[in-house]
Amino acid sequence: MHIRRLALLLTLMAPITALAQAYPTKPVRIILGFTPGGGVDINARLMAPKLSEFLGQQVLVENRPGAGTNIANELVAKAAPDGYTLLMNTAAVAINMSLYKKVGFDTLRDFTAVTIFSTSPNVMVVNAKVPARNVAEFLELARSQPGQLNYSSAGSGTTQHLAGELLKTLTKTSLTHIPYKGSAPSLTALVAAEVQLSFANIPAISSHVKAGRLRALALTGAKRSELMPDVPTMKESGVNMEVDVWYGVLAPAATPRPIVNRLAEQIARVAHDPEIKKRLIDLGAEPLANKPEEFARILRAEVSTWAEVVKASGATAED
């Protein structure tokens, strides 16, 4: 009986194994819920050419911004689970479960975690016209003008948005959230002094900081960055806040495990390729490329953690 069951199991698995061995036989699409020029877009376009080389098929990057990344999220969630339509996103895919009253997908039910390509901290950064040289001075200024200081983000549900909400909750300050359709317009608004504060990645702000248009106050990560060694962390600045940004690849649920594993393995090769690794470090990011199971655990934890932040802050997608 056991031999018959084993034979039946092997017979059922044979098509899946053969599919994984043949995969991919056509171009692979990576869908982004962000506009060009932001952290997700930069990571995806850095990864795609080398991944194309390793997979032996073209890997295409497609921007589908809108609704706080939910347009892209839903598109991939409902795509065929065959490994040819993937999603690259940040914690926004976890945040949106609680931030939006209704979304057309369930992060934990409709996606399969593949791997986190890289991680990086955001920087709490202000326009140079803001009379604050550090976090403490900014908080003092914010408390003296409740609700009058604005902070921008790449859209509702992004880590930039929730970092601002977390800052408000932890420091009991009143700031007004101004969402934009992507990182580039959010940063443009900050440089133009249309808003006073934002959370942005190092590559996006470094030239503006050097030119004196922006002032970096603190890093949201666990440690200082070699690219900005004089900028302290939020914890060093007296705010118990740590928000690292991850750039992860997800596939539709029910994507065959051999295909998921192959993708994770090849993306890991890309992340740790010497040239790619150097370029990531130059961008203020660190290659990660963890196992699908590890990413799945992180995703579950992120859904729970950000739900608490959303509840405590009272944030909504309309903020």
Strand and helix map with partners:
Elements: H1 2-22, E1 28-32, H2 39-55, E2 59-63, H3 70-77, E3 85-89, H4 92-99, H5 107-110, E4 111-127, H6 135-144, E5 150-153, H7 159-171, E6 176-179, H8 183-191, E7 197-201, H9 202-210, E8 214-219, E9 244-252, H10 257-271, H11 274-282, E10 286-287, H12 292-313
Parallel strand pairs: 1-2, 1-3, 5-6, 5-7
Antiparallel strand pairs: 3-9, 4-7, 4-8, 4-9, 4-10
Helix pairs in contact: 2-10, 4-12, 7-12
Tags for this entry?
alpha/beta; D-Maltodextrin-Binding Protein, domain 2; 2 domains; ten-stranded mixed beta sheet; 10 strands; 19% strand; globular
Summarize the structure.
This protein has 319 residues and is an alpha/beta fold.
Can you describe this structure?
It is a single chain. Strands 1, 2, 3, 4, 5, 6, 7, 8, 9 and 10 form a 10-stranded mixed β-sheet that branches. The termini are far apart. It is built from 12 helices and 10 strands. Helix 7 (159-171) packs across helix 12. It has helices spanning 2-22, 39-55, 70-77, 92-99, 107-110, 135-144, 159-171, 183-191, 202-210, 257-271, 274-282, 292-313, and strands spanning 28-32, 59-63, 85-89, 111-127, 150-153, 176-179, 197-201, 214-219, 244-252, 286-287. It is globular and about 75 Å long. It has 319 residues and is of the alpha/beta class. It folds into 2 domains: 26-119 and 245-313, Bordetella uptake gene, domain 1 (D-Maltodextrin-Binding Protein, domain 2), CATH 3.40.190; 121-219, Periplasmic binding protein-like II (D-Maltodextrin-Binding Protein, domain 2, 3-Layer(aba) Sandwich), CATH 3.40.190.10. It is 45% helix and 19% strand.
